[in-house]
Amino acid sequence: MPAELLKTCYAERNPSTLYIKGVQFFFSFSLKEEGLSLMKRAADAGYECAVYTHAITRAIFWCDGQYFAGIPRETVDRIRKLVRSVKWGWDLWHFDEFRQNRAMFTLAYLPSFYSCQCANLVERQFLCLWHIDVTKDNNMCDRCFWIKEIGMFLRDFEPISLFRDTRKW
């Protein structure tokens, strides 16, 4: 996308542009405060991808799950597919805290996900993020549902890194 168009969209506070810039700032440049603020503005404007990514990001980095309440479970599958359909970059551009939180999540939350009896469980030899999306049926409790979503985000999300640096706008 031409730089002038991006600048104009950002100046007009276009929600999708705020979202893209917020994700880039947060996940690629480790500018967490600025990135989260931009994602929140896009979420407040109703941009679904931003609502989802902002809620997941708050849960991962601040253990704050309050924003999940604003996302109806029946819409999560569609939104998740939209967020993950964009291949923004590659895993090596995740900043260290993201990788550390992924490891901590695996140790802290996966055991409770796999031990909860809320839904039919497909037995796995290893507690890992790789199979989390096919481990339980859709009858799981809210806690397990959001653990699954966070796990898939940590497993699949690839930040913006191959696009121009927009910090100068």
Automatic annotation (TrEMBL):
Domain At2g35280-like TPR intervals: 5-57
Pfam families given in the database record: TPR_27
Name of the protein: At2g35280-like TPR domain-containing protein
Transmembrane stretches, start-end: none
PANTHER family the UniProt entry points to: (RAPE) HYPOTHETICAL PROTEIN, OS05G0482100 PROTEIN
